[in-house]
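README: folding subset

This subset contains proteins for which both the sequence and a predicted structure token string are available. Records are stored as plain text. Below is the entry for Putative pterin-4-alpha-carbinolamine dehydratase (216 residues), shown exactly as it appears on disk.
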Amino acid sequence: MDTLTVTQILDSNLADWRRLAQALHARFATGDFMAGLAFVTAVGAAAEEANHHPDVTLTYPYVDLKLISHDASGITQRDVDLARKISDIARQQGIESQPAALAEIEFALDTANAAGAGPFWAALLTGSADNVDGDDVQDGNGRVPLLWFQHTDAHETPRQRIHLDVWVPHDLAEQRISAAVAAGGRVVDDSEAPSFVVLADPEGNRACVCTCLDRG
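--- output ---
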């Protein structure tokens, strides 16, 4: 099955869902554990019927869901279809979504030697030096954020080598950036907006606010 472009995903009008780094994400405010359990049970039945299964996190006040077609390495129509079905279930059970609560963190390491650094970071973060996929260190158990390697020329001058990528819903990026600036930060580079904007804290430590927009 073909993966969908960002435009195709946005045109699907999934009001409860947002594409972050790689997948569709949603949070549903269930209010208590038993309501969440009933919701997850219904979602599980829909997933079994579709033969396509989301990642689910059940907590006391909310349920987080993530949809991606791993066999296609991206979001496909079956993810969109199941997202709609899950939203229907939420509405039937009187459960509201909270897209403004969504965020995803990735770490980026600036390096001229990704092949050398990769096994170390994979072993440190995941327990196995084999968990390197291209320029990414991935934890198959989902316990730690993704680490990716940003290629650069070798250099001796001390500089920040690790920064955070903070993925937020595309329609909330300006709000998040404004909040960070109001809290003492500054915009370093917005030339790649709306794809990402580089911010710095008062001491110069940098992070990128990232969205799914304007990406290949």
